[in-house]
Amino acid sequence: MSRVVVVGAGLAGLSAACHLRGAGHEVTVLETEATVGGRAAWIEDAGFTFETGPTVLTMPSLVDDALAAVGSRLADRLQVRRLDPAYRSCFADGSELRTRSAHADMRTEIERFSGPADAAAFDGFVDWLTQLHDVEMPNFIDRNLDSVLDLVSRPAAAARLLRLGGFGRLGPAVARRFADERLHRAFTFQALYAGIAPSKALAIYAVITYMDSIAGVYFPVGGISRVPQVMADALVDAGATVRTSSTVTAVVRGDGGAVTGVLLGDGELVPADAVVCTRDLPLAYRDLLPDLRAPRRVRRARYAPSAVVWHLGVRGAPRPGTEHHNIHFGHEWEGAFDALIDRRELMPDPSRLVSVPSLTEPGLAPQGCTSLYVLEPVPHLDGRIDWDRERAPMKERLLEFLDAEGYPTDVVVEHMDTPADWAARGLAAGTPFALAHTFGQTGPFRPHNIDRRAPGLVFAGSATTPGVGVPMVLVSGRLAAERVEQHLRTGA
């Protein structure tokens, strides 16, 4: 039985720990904070519960896969509901589109919204998304890729992806299928999760649209922060150790650079035959591996835009028709992305997400009150915005927006996170979305999850393979476990 230390009890670290414990290793998870969850954490204040990280859960089967590795099942530990609709999309002309969970219901919704031609086109669109997912997931996402040669090691899959137009652009690919420009937005906004404008994103990132709009959006009872809690519980039940309030200050290495353990802030040395590190990559090298210069891909990384997230506990209820997740699209589209990504300025006419989890689970707010989560995309810290000065004006603009859209604004308690706050929590460039999924930071071009100068050290999380988002970091944990297994077998 080998000893493996996992640094960080976020979703990536817990996924890695589950797969490693399931393989029979002695696993210790070390988390700086007093609770598990990493970015998927929560705040309790004045009777309100706020999710401070992701609010959209897709592909819960990946959580189930991790739990299965330690002999558990998601259904036995947590009730997870599929949201229908997944989203309410609100457009500047006053129209609304609801993303329905059943194919027939969504087809009917599109016919009501855009007419019979676009409704008929939806059938082919779903088929295209499904084929993209089916070829990408096993061949290019759920797989460690070390070089470009790995892309062509499965030529049939690569050829199929090429025939599907996966290396074209997402925006034009969707525009060719639907006449209504509003549908283009509803089915491509997901590219922003990957840090790129829909018009410039590779069509392979339609897999995110598949996860959102076809596979479905889910809500765990208690919130997404319950997911890491039940994963940690399952690990402990399986004999692993999960230690909170334990800050790792260094990865200790011996002969040939191989890892021998980690050092904690109180001076304790925790020995290990392998270490999985989930710290944001640039900060992992800076803080835990100061004698190793970060690889060029890390030093020259291009970061995704950040976001301002405002949590509000308010008195009153939203207007009828409000859903759990509500996307409010501005008039601007291409110009807004040019400002956000190219010029690194605030979007002139921003699109925003408003989640109202207390609609689905009233216990997240006191009686007669509502819990709101408001997100506006903003530039990361390489932009020119002084967030000490911008925080108050941002609150004023968001409050005006909420009032205009029929959300209650009698504020009881509020918490705002800006790029400066994300940076203070250890997120490079002040963005929770890590490295943008440009072509040069996709697949084998993304920073690798191993550094051959430090045998036995493996990285997991959104800055490494396969990328950003809850499904991807869960996969990254499994891929990290696979790397550890390879190292323990071969020493490589």
Keywords:
19 strands; alpha/beta; single chain; 492 residues
Sum up the overall morphology in one term. Answer: globular
Distance separating the two termini = 18 Å
Report the portion of residues in β strands: 15-25%
- Given the structure, what is the number of helices? 18
Low-confidence stretches: none
How would you state the average pLDDT, rounded?
95
Count of distinct strands: 19
| CA-based gyration radius | 22 Å
> How can the largest sheet be summarized?
7 strands, mixed
**Structural class of the secondary elements?**
alpha/beta
Strand order of the largest sheet: 7-6-15-16-17-14-18
Assign a percent range to the helix content: 25-40%
Write the layout of secondary structure elements.
Elements: E1 3-7, H1 11-22, E2 26-30, E3 42-45, E4 48-51, H2 61-69, H3 74-77, E5 80-82, E6 87-90, E7 96-99, H4 103-114, H5 116-141, H6 148-151, H7 155-163, H8 170-175, H9 181-186, H10 206-214, E8 218-220, H11 226-237, E9 241-243, E10 248-253, E11 259-264, E12 269-271, E13 274-277, H12 281-288, H13 296-299, E14 306-315, E15 325-328, H14 334-342, E16 352-355, H15 357-360, E17 369-378, H16 387-404, E18 410-417, H17 419-424, E19 457-459, H18 470-490
Parallel strand pairs: 1-2, 1-13, 2-9, 6-15, 13-19
Antiparallel strand pairs: 3-4, 5-8, 6-7, 10-11, 11-12, 14-17, 14-18, 15-16, 16-17
Helix pairs in contact: 1-2, 1-11, 1-18, 4-5, 5-7, 5-10
